[in-house]
Amino acid sequence: MTTILIKNANLFYAKQVIKSDLLIEDDKITQIADEINERADKIIDADNKLVAPGLVDVHVHFREPGQVHKETILTGSKAAAHGGFTTVGAMPNVIPVPDNVDDFKNQLELNKQSVIKTLQYAPVTMNETEDKLSPIEDLAKLGAMAFSNDGHGINNAKTMFDAMLRIKAVNSHLAAHVEDQNLFNKGVINAGPVAEEFGLPAIERVAETSQLARDLILAKETGVHYHVCHLSTADGVKLIRMAKDAGINVTCEVTPHHLLLSDSNIIKDDANYKMNPPLRSENDRRDLIDGLLDGTIDMIATDHAPHAENEKNQGFLKSAFGITGIETSFPLMYSRFVKTSLMSLEQLLELMTNKPAQIFNLSAGEIKIGADADLTIIDLNKSFEIKKEDFISKGMNSPFIGQEVYGQIQKTFVKGQEVYSI
Ligand SMILES: NC(=O)N[C@@H](CC(=O)O)C(=O)O
Ligand SMILES: [Zn+2]
Ligand SMILES: [Zn+2]
C-alpha cells in the first residue's frame, strides 16, 4: 500500500474551507482530521494552501480522433490536470463522430490515454447532423456520460422531441448547444454596434433564445434532464429562471469568457475573441453574472476548444470558432470573482466541483472518506501572468494571455497519483 499524508491544508470539505490534515491510502481518501500523525510514504506540507476536490468540467473538446494537430487526449488531459481538473466530459464532435457502437467503443479505448478521468458524451444524432437519431440506448449502455450535438443546434423540433423521449427513457442527460442554424446565418460575431463597426456578419441573440424557448417547452413535455451549454444571453437567463420556477428539469452552464468579456473587449480581427456562442454585450454579461449569483446558472464549464495557430490567425472571418480555457479557468474565476468579493471561495468551488458532479450524477467533486483521492492543491496567494509558453494544451488560442491572476495550481492528484506538479 502507498500512503500520502497531506498536512496543514485549507481543505474544502463539507462545503466549508477548514484547517485539516488528510490521509490517502492507495487511491482513496481514508482520514480527514485536525491532526494526523500516521507514518506515510510521502508527506506533503500544504502550508495552508487550498486543498480542493479535483475540479470538474463537463464541457471540453479533446479533438482525438481526427484532429490531433489541435489537441490529443493526452495533451488535453495533462492541460486539464494543470488547470486543477480531475474529471471532464469530452464532446463528441471528433472525426469520426462516435455515433455507433464500434466508434464509441474505440473512443472509450482512446480515452484511456487520459491522465485524468475523461468521460465521454455521445452524439444525439448520426454524425451530429439532423436526420437520424444515434443508437441512444446502445451508447448509454456503453457508458455515455450524456448526449450532445455540441457544435451544432438541433433545428428540427421533431428530432429534438424524439431525442428527449429516448434520452429520458435511458435516464441520461441532454446537453444542448442551443442555436438555430438558420438564424446563426454564418455570422462570426455578436449582432450589435461592434459587428457594425467591424463590418462583420453577425449572430443574432435570437439564434440562442428562440431555440431555447422551444426546447424548454419540449423538456417540460418530456421530463428529460435538459442541460444548456455555454449560455450567452440576458434573455436566455430569464428563460431559464422562468423554466426553473415552473419546475422544468433544466440546468445550465456558463463559461469564464462569457462572464469576463463582452464584444466591446474584442480587438479588431483578433480571432482569439472568436467563439460560438459569441461574446455578447455588457448587458448580457451582467445578466449572466446575476444568473450565476442567484443560482439560475448552475455551474462553470470551460468549453475548452483548442485550435492550431494557423487556424486562429486568419482574422475574424476565416478563423475557427473557439478558445482554450481549461488551464486558465480557476485562476481567472478566482481572481475576478472571489478576490473582488463578488462571490465567496466556497461558492466558486461549488460551481466548479460539487454542482456539475451532482447534476450529471458523477462520483466526483467532493472530498470525503472513501472517495477517490482526486485533489488539487492551489496557492491562492501566488500571482502570475498567463503566458503562452506555460500552456500544456496544444492550443494557445486564448484572449487572456498577458493577464495577471492569482490562484496557481501546485499539484493535482487522480486516484492518489500525482498527475501534475509545478
Ligand atoms: N465553442 C466553439 O466555438 N467551438 C467548439 C464547438 C462548440 O462548443 O460549439 C469547437 O469544437 O471548437
Ligand atoms: Zn457549443
Ligand atoms: Zn463546445
Automatic annotation (TrEMBL):
Substrate binds at residues 61-63, 93, 276, 307, 321-322. The keyword Phosphoprotein does not apply. The active site is at residue 303. PROSITE patterns: DIHYDROOROTASE_1, DIHYDROOROTASE_2. PANTHER family: ALLANTOINASE. Belongs to the metallo-dependent hydrolases superfamily. DHOase family. Class I DHOase subfamily. This is Dihydroorotase.
